[in-house]
C-alpha cells in the first residue's frame, strides 16, 4: 500500500502542466528520432544530455523516459512500413510486420505494434512500482565486493551477448574501460594516459564520448553509405487504423507471452531488448507450426504482437533496474546513468531516500508516457513516415551541428570539440567493423565504480582477494554470470553448427 500512496504522490508531480509538457516533448522527440533509419533512442538521449543541464532534474528525466519509450515506437513504425528497423530491438518486428504492410494491412500492423508496446510498457511500469523499492532495499546489503561483482557481471554478460564475436564485444568493453581511466587518479594522484595534455587531467567527459560515439559516429557511418544504399520509399498506412475483434483475440495471447518474456530481461545485462524480442518471435513461430493453418511467413499478427510487447516490457523493467540497483542494461540506460551523475545523483537504494519526489514522479511518468505514445502513434503514423522526406545531407548536417553545440555548451572548451571529432571517427570505425557500442558505454560508465569498489574491498581486507567471493550475493552473481556465459557459448556453437550444415 505504501508504494501505491507514493505513486499517487508521484502522479501529482508528473501531471503538473510543466512536466506534462516534458513528457509530451520527450515522446515526440523519441518517436521522431526512432522513425529515422539508423537513429534511435540512445542517440536522442545522447544529443539531449548536454542540453538539459539547465532543467530541473525531475523534468529532465521525465523527458528522457519519454524519449526512451518513444524511440521504440518510432523504430517499430519504420520496421513495419519500410522494413528498416532503427535499432536492433525492432528487427524481429520486420519479419511479419512488413509482410502485413505489403498485404495492405499496414494500419492494422501499426495498431498491433502500438497496442503491444502499450501493454508491455504498462505491465512493466506496474511491476517496477512494486518491485523497485524492494530491489532498492535488498541492494542495501551490497558492499564493495558486491558492487564489484555486479559491475563485472554487467561487463562480461553484455560484451559476450550483444555481438556475434565475443572478441569484438570484449574489445569494445576494454576500450570503454580505457577511456574511463584517463586523467588524474583520485587515490594516488598519478597521471594516467593523459599524454601530458593538461586538458585531459580531469579525464574525458562522458558527455563528449556519448555524443561522439552514438551520434557523430552514426553520422559518419551514414555519410559513408549514403551513395551506395538505395532509399526505400515509405509505404503509406492503408486500411482501418484499429483491430477487429478477431484480430484482437488473435494477438492477445501473443501480447501476454511477449510481456512475460520481456519483463525479466530488464534486469539481465544482455545489451537491451534484442534478445527477448527474438525469443518472443521464436516462441510464436514454434507455436504457429503446431496450428492446422500456419500463418507465419504471410503476415502473422502474432509474430508482430509478441516482440513489440517484449521490447517495451524489457525497457520498462530496465528503468527499474537502473533506479533501484544503478545497473544499466543497455546503451540508453548507461547514458541515463551518466545523466544522473551529472546531476550529482547516484541511482540505487539511497536514491529512493534522498530524492523520493524525483523517483516517484519519474515512475508515474512511465504510465503517462505510455498513454501519450498510444495517442500520438495510432492516428499519426503517416505523419511520422513523412519525416523520411527530409534530404539526408540536411538531416545529418543538422545532427552534426547539434553535436558540436551541445558539447561546447557543456564545457566551453575547443579541445573538447577536437576530442568529439576524434572519438566520433573511432565510433565510425567501430561501426564499420561490426563492433558493438553498448559494452563501450557500459565500460566507461561502470568502470570507475568497479575500480573504486575493488580498491575499497581489498583495503578493507588488507589485500585478501577472498573477500571478493566472501558473501552469498557475490557467489550468486558469479554463478549466474557463469550460467549466462555458458548458455551464450552453447547458443553460438549451435548456430555455427547449423550454418555449417
Automatic annotation (TrEMBL):
TM helices/strands, residue ranges: 20-39, 59-81, 109-132, 138-158, 165-184, 204-226, 321-340, 360-380, 387-409, 415-430, 437-454, 466-489
Alphabetical list of Pfam families matching this protein: TctA (PF01970)
Q: Does the keyword 4Fe-4S apply?
A: no
The UniProt keywords, alphabetically, are: Membrane, Transmembrane, Transmembrane helix
Q: Name all DUF112 domain ranges.
A: 20-442
Output the InterPro entries linked to this UniProt entry. Answer: DUF112_TM
Q: What is this protein called?
A: Putative tricarboxylic transport membrane protein
Which species does the entry assign this protein to? Ornithinimicrobium cerasi
Amino acid at each position: 500500500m505504501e508504494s501505491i500512496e507514493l505513486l499517487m504522490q508521484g502522479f501529482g508531480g508528473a501531471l503538473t502542466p510543466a512536466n506534462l509538457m516534458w513528457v509530451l516533448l520527450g515522446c515526440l522527440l523519441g518517436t521522431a528520432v526512432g522513425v529515422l533509419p539508423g537513429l534511435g533512442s540512445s542517440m536522442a538521449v545522447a544529443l539531449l544530455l548536454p542540453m538539459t543541464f539547465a532543467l530541473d532534474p525531475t523534468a529532465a528525466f521525465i523527458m528522457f523516459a519519454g524519449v526512451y519509450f518513444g524511440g521504440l515506437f518510432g523504430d517499430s513504425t519504420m520496421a513495419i512500413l519500410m522494413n528498416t528497423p532503427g535499432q536492433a530491438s525492432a528487427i524481429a518486428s520486420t519479419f511479419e510486420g512488413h509482410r502485413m504492410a505489403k498485404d495492405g494491412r499496414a494500419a492494422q500492423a501499426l495498431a498491433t505494434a502500438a497496442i503491444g508496446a502499450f501493454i508491455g510498457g504498462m505491465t512493466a511500469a506496474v511491476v517496477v512500482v512494486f518491485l523497485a523499492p524492494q530491489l532498492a532495499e535488498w541492494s542495501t546489503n551490497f558492499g564493495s565486493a558486491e558492487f564489484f561483482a555486479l559491475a563485472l557481471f554487467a561487463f562480461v554478460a553484455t560484451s559476450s551477448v550483444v555481438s556475434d564475436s565475443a572478441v569484438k564485444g570484449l574489445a569494445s568493453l576494454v576500450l570503454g574501460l580505457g577511456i574511463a581511466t584517463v586523467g588524474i587518479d583520485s587515490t594516488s594522484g598519478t597521471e594516467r594516459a593523459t599524454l601530458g595534455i593538461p586538458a585531459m587531467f580531469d579525464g574525458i567527459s562522458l558527455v563528449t564520448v556519448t555524443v561522439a560515439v552514438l551520434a557523430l559516429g552514426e553520422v559518419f557511418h551514414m555519410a559513408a553509405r549514403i551513395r551506395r544504399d538505395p532509399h526505400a520509399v515509405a509505404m503509406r498506412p492503408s486500411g482501418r487504423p484499429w483491430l477487429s475483434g478477431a484480430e484482437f483475440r488473435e494477438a492477445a495471447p501473443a501480447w501476454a507471452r511477449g510481456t512475460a518474456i520481456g519483463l525479466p530481461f530488464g534486469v539481465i545485462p544482455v545489451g537491451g531488448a534484442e534478445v527477448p524480442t527474438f525469443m518472443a518471435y521464436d516462441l510464436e513461430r514454434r507455436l504457429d507450426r503446431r496450428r492446422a493453418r500456419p500463418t507465419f511467413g504471410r503476415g502473422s499478427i502474432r509474430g508482430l504482437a509478441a516482440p513489440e510487447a517484449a521490447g517495451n516490457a524489457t525497457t520498462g523493467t530496465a528503468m527499474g533496474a537502473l533506479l533501484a540497483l544503478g545497473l544499466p542494461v543497455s546503451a540508453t540506460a548507461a547514458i541515463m546513468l551518466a545523466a544522473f551523475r551529472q546531476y550529482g545523483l547516484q541511482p540505487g537504494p539511497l536514491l529512493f531516500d534522498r530524492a523520493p519526489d524525483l523517483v516517484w514522479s519519474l515512475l508515474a511518468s512511465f504510465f503517462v508516457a505510455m498513454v501519450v505514445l498510444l495517442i500520438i502513434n495510432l492516428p499519426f503514423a503517416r505523419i511520422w513516415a513523412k519525416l523520411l522526406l527530409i534530404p539526408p545531407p540536411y538531416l545529418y548536417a543538422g545532427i552534426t551541428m547539434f553535436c558540436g553545440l551541445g558539447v561546447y555548451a557543456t564545457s566551453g572548451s575547443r579541445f573538447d570539440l577536437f576530442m568529439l571529432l576524434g572519438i566520433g571517427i573511432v565510433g565510425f570505425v567501430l561501426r564499420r567493423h561490426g563492433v558493438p557500442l553498448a559494452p563501450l558505454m557500459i565500460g566507461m560508465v561502470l568502470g570507475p565504480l568497479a575500480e573504486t569498489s575493488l580498491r575499497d574491498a581489498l583495503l578493507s581486507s588488507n589485500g585478501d582477494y577472498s573477500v571478493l567471493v566472501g558473501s552469498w550475493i557475490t557467489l550468486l552473481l558469479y554463478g549466474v554470470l557463469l550460467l549466462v556465459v555458458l548458455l551464450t557459448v552453447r547458443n553460438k556453437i549451435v548456430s555455427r553448427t547449423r550454418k555449417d550444415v
